[in-house]
Task: structure prediction
Amino acid sequence: MRTLLLMRHAKATHCPGYSDRQRPLKKSGRAAAASIAETLRKDGLRPDLILCSPSRRTRETAELVAEAFPTLPDQILIDDLYLASASEILSCIRTVPKEIGTLMLVGHNIGLEHLTQILAGPVGKAWHLSPGTLAIFTLDAGDWAQTDASCMSDPRLVRPD
Result:
């Protein structure tokens, strides 16, 4: 059994002078990411690996989550995750080594929201990933290469406090 954590980056600034890739988290976004991190810590859901888009807002979100744990999870920045579609994100997940038990991916909408809706099946049809929202799935397949909606169970959405 494996756990998949899909998180949309927390709320970022829209100030002029920042390119889209360089937008930092707002103070409220930092608090939201810390809230999700605390939920994961309390639930014993420490990622073994965090895959992250290279944008500043996703990196900052991933770093705040990682800091909640005594030992930092490995993090990999993947350029193809920047504004990726649902199918591009799923392709990335399917390449994860089977030794990884809990995988976290921090990315962007709309692709991330579409993927969570697909993986959650009927319960996820109305899911909306506002900034800082986390989707949690149990993967019943033997390895990440088999990831699809048919092998997901217990989907749930966690919104920051």
Notes: The chain has a mean pLDDT of 95. Residues 18 and 146 are 39 Å apart (CA to CA). The helical segments are 27-42, 56-66, 86-93, 111-120.
